[in-house]
Amino acid sequence: MITASKLSKSFAEVKALSELSFQVNSGEVYGLLGPNGAGKTTTLRILATLIEASSGTASVNGFDIKKDAEEVRKSIGVVNGGMGLYDRLTGKEVLYYFASFYGMSKAATDKRIKELDDLLDLGDTLSRRTTGFSTGMKQKIVIARAVLHDPPVIFFDEATSGLDIMARRAVMNFVKAYPSQSRAVIYSTHVMSEVEELCDRVGIIYKGKLIAEDKVEALIEQSGERNLENAFFKLIERSGSEMHT
Amino acid sequence: MRLSFILQVAKKEIVSTLRDRRAIVSSLLIPLLILPFVMLGLPLLLGGLFQREQSNVTEIAVTGLEYLPPELKTELEAQNISFSETSNLEALVRDGEYQVALSIPEGFNDKLESGEKVSLTLISKTGNLRSELNASKIGEAVSKFSQAIVTQRLSAAGLSAEILEPIGVETLDASSDAERSSGQLAWLIPFFIAMWTLTGGQVTALDATAGEKERGTLESLLVSPVRRVEVVVGKFLSTLTFGLSASVMAILGYLLGGALLRSIFLKQLDEGAEEVVQILGGSLQTTPLSIILLLLSALLLASLISALLISITMFARTYKEAQSYVAPLSFVMIIPAIGLQFSDFFGTNIIVYLVPILNALVLMDDIVKGQVAFLPLLATWASLIGFSVLFLDFAFRNFRREGVIFRT
Ligand SMILES: Nc1ncnc2c1ncn2[C@@H]1O[C@H](COP(=O)(O)OP(=O)(O)OP(=O)(O)O)[C@@H](O)[C@H]1O
Ligand SMILES: [Mg+2]
User: Fold this and answer.
1) Is A98 on the interface with B (CB under 8 A)?
2) Among A181, A238, B26, B390, which residue has the least CB neighbours within 10 Å?
3) What distance in Å separates the CA atoms of residue A140 and residue A121, rounded to the nearest whole number?
């Protein structure tokens, strides 16, 4: 459902990605795990057609990110940690605004909002102006907005950053409950426990390169460590020394 | 480009701005009220002060009061002037103890009667309005008195006073009614239109570009199927809406101020009131055509300013940063407005009507004065449209650049 092949990206003198390739199948939650500056956000921005790769290709939901950028955007929903809302609009107005870009009718939007209210427990965030929302309330509307059009592909990028335990749990429950056989999810984070809990497969990304990719248990086993965190350090250390030689 | 998407973007920005109470006050209410306030306040203040100064009894410092001719004394007293005999006049006026002082030399009246040449010394402070006003009152009384003596002496010699002025000059004002009634402050109308367009448009432009980045909403907008060009045009249209609204409010304020000025003050202030009202532009003559031309020109000016605002504020990451970018734009408006006061010197040169912003100001000045011509109108409108498109294109190109959207 998502295919990235040899994606590279340079910002001036910084090489953010070098020849990154991976695949995500439908029905899968794919974890993108890496330290700060590894290139996770850059990867997701390229796949979301926000920025262009310096080289390499990718397709999302069968659409080429370069040739069919608009179809790609219709197929995806994006949730970031730092995303905000329009503070002089109510939660519902924010959702209506975005629904209009997906060509959703008023009736269809209302129906969908009702479904999402049940799923995310949006409560009075729908009728209140978003000024003064807590980070958790905000993030619920951000998620509702991202999946409003029921996209087959969803990107989460540090979606739980800044949230308290309760709000974080709510987001994670959504990621657990929402995907289905027809959907593919990329879940980018540097929090090990989230990956362990949510992801079917994990790609570990370091300095713009994919240094390992497998099921969580397989990665742990492969490294001979007890848990994902130790496996992660070991894999990074190994690849660091390989890069030097 | 899909119109419905553009309108969605514009509508959202308009709703957001309308819900910002401070923005509404600063970009719609203040432009409506400020001109009536200034136009009514000024004559009220100045007229009141002048009248008081005219009618109040003013005490002036004098030396040699006994040498003052009695007729002149009566004349001065009729002008509400009283006398206080003292010495050291210059210092007294300098220190502000008296507004004016009059020094009458010894034997003034006797010498005058014997036909000798005599002179008085009038001491005032130039640059002090009250002092000058009183000095001119005294000066007038003296010259009136002196005129009377001349006439008297000439008729004693069997001559008519007319021989003093062998050639008379009559002046005739060739300006049209619209020109005459637009007043000395007519150039303020284009200036206010430009300034308020900038102020009104700014509120929306900042929120729609830098505000969107600062809040972290831009990315979610750009991953939706709306195209970047639609986003730019939508934001441009909403900026244009508020820029134009603010300038229309300013024009309405001007007309309102003029109407109030006429209805209230023409009755209250007697002499000179007509002139005050006219100088302040209160008797501006508007025809339906001139209003339509003015509005169309204001619209095109607003579109240029909006395109400029969008293309500049887009670079900013935060509201504050964007504000510092647009601050210098006020100067861009002030410079042509200053030039406008000298428009008589370059008004006929067509090149003026090709320079963006300056051309709009000059053209609107022409419209207000009822002297607009076809070619300048065409040149101005074409230039404004051309430059708007240019800036909009610039904005759109930059909106596609990663470095602008994700500037770190
Ligand atoms: N717009 C940009 N301009 C310049 N350099 C950039 C830009 N965006 C990212 N980079 C650089 O590219 C590299 C990868 O950044 P990226 O944001 O993709 O990392 P990340 O894995 O998401 O990190 P984090 O966990 O901190 O979010 C970093 O070195 C970063 O400094
Ligand atoms: Mg990141």
Assistant:
1) yes
2) A181
3) 8
CATH value of A2-84+153-243 in 3.40.50.300, 3.30.1230.20, 3.20.20.70, 3.40.350.10: 3.40.50.300
3-state DSSP assignment of residue A108: helix
A73–chain B Cβ distance below 8 A for any pair: yes
pLDDT at B179: 67
pLDDT digits (tens, 9 = 90+) for B162-188: 777 778 788 787 777 666 666 666 677
pTM for this entry: 0.83
Distance from CA of A51 to the nearest CA of B (A): 6
Contact B19 A48 (CB under 8 A): no
Could you read off the pLDDT of B281-329 as tens digits, one per residue? 555 667 888 889 999 999 999 999 999 999 999 999 999 999 999 999 8
Give me ligand 1 centre to Cα A94, in Å.
28
Owning domain of residue B251 = 3-48+179-405
ipTM here: 0.93
Cβ atoms of residues B185 and B280 within 8 Å: yes
Do B314 and B294 belong together in one domain?
A: yes
All residues at 6 or more sequence positions from B141 whose CB lies less than 8 Å from its CB, including other chains: B72, B75, B76, B79, B81
Q: Whose CA is nearest to atom 7 of ligand 1?
A: A11
Cite the beta strand spans of B164-292 per DSSP E.
none
Number of domains observed in the structure of chain B: 2
Which of A65, A88, A95 should we substitute to test contact with B (largest number of B Cβ atoms within 10 Å)? A88
